[in-house]
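Fold this: RAQPRD family integrative conjugative element protein
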Amino acid sequence: MKLSPPPRKLFARFGLVSGLIFTLGLTTGAACAAGTASEQANVDVMIRQLNAVEAVARRSAELPSDGNSRYHLDYNRLAADIARIRQGLQDYLAPSRAQPRDAAELSGQYQREGAQP
């Protein structure tokens, strides 16, 4: 019993479909890579902005305080929380192998009573 060769139309369709799937795979991969690059750029911008805010907080902590005020902004605690947020963003950009997450919470309380140290 002799098998007949498959029709050319079938090969043409297979070639067209496989070419289409290959092309879609390339464009989808490029779109995912572009989204990742865009996200990385956004996180980099956030880190630079946090660096600027932290620098202002640290400079403000060194300024002489007004002794007449009852409440003062706790710049050191604010700077520590900003550093923690920045570290989380940097860890996101360069993840290491899976490890337990640090569950320490941010303070969120930046008001102090009395004289500034």
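The two ends are 98 Å apart (CA to CA). The first helix runs from residue 8 to 62.
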